[in-house]
Write a structure and sequence with these properties.
This protein is of the alpha+beta class. It has helices at 7-15, 19-35, 44-50, 57-70, 74-82, 137-142, 147-170, and strands at residues 86-87, 98-99, 101-110, 113-120, 125-128, 133-136, 173-180. It is elongated and about 50 Å long. The N and C termini lie far apart (53 Å).
């Protein structure tokens, strides 16, 4: 089944932006993804078409639309997405000198939120551009002068990956409750 909106209809929807606009355009996109053998998800073309940017109110509205579209399958998709080991090298546009792997543990789920614990695995590294040197991540976390910055950057990097891999496929907003650096 084809879902066709004329250019005039599309421009009218975007011009008169409201929650129904997001739902109509998103559902068309999600159904096309399914027809093409993909899992329904939020992607850059959808965000561009809706003129939405990450971490703005309309993005969170879009997450709700996806979660409602998925219905009861949202949590099983989240469980599947969080049951693998992620490595930052798979995200070269995000890493900023970090190379580490991490696991995700879902602590709880409530409405449109997932509460997660993150375990950063041993043997990670960070390249310090200012010092032009690479450090073992465990050494950087223990260094009193830079530990707070390293931890903050790791948390932001993990959030960015969670948005791409979990939120954009499940509709859940991810909240990190704890990051473990037990190495």
């Amino acid at each position: 089944m084809k879902y066709i909106i004329s250019e005039g209809q599309y421009e009218n929807l975007i011009e008169n932006y409201n929650p129904d606009t997001v739902k109509i355009i998103s559902h068309i996109r999600f159904k096309r993804q399914i027809e093409n053998g993909d899992d329904p998800h939020i992607d850059k073309p959808l965000m561009t078409n809706l003129k939405i940017k990450y971490n703005q109110g309309q993005y969170y509205q879009l997450l709700r639309v996806l979660k409602n579209f998925l219905g009861d399958s949202a949590l099983p998709v989240a469980i599947k997405k969080t049951s693998k080991t992620y490595n930052t090298v798979d995200y070269p546009n995000l890493t900023g000198g970090y190379d580490f792997s991490f696991n995700i543990d879902i602590k709880s789920e409530e409405d449109y939120n997932l509460y997660l614990n993150i375990e950063v695995l041993p043997n990670g590294t960070v390249y310090l551009f200012v010092a032009e040197t690479e450090l073992d991540l465990s050494d950087a976390i223990r260094d009193e002068d830079i530990a707070w910055e390293i931890e903050s950057e790791i948390e932001q990097l993990v959030y960015d990956i969670l948005s791409l891999e979990v939120s954009n496929y499940t509709g859940y907003q991810c909240t990190i409750e704890k990051i473990n650096f037990d190495f």
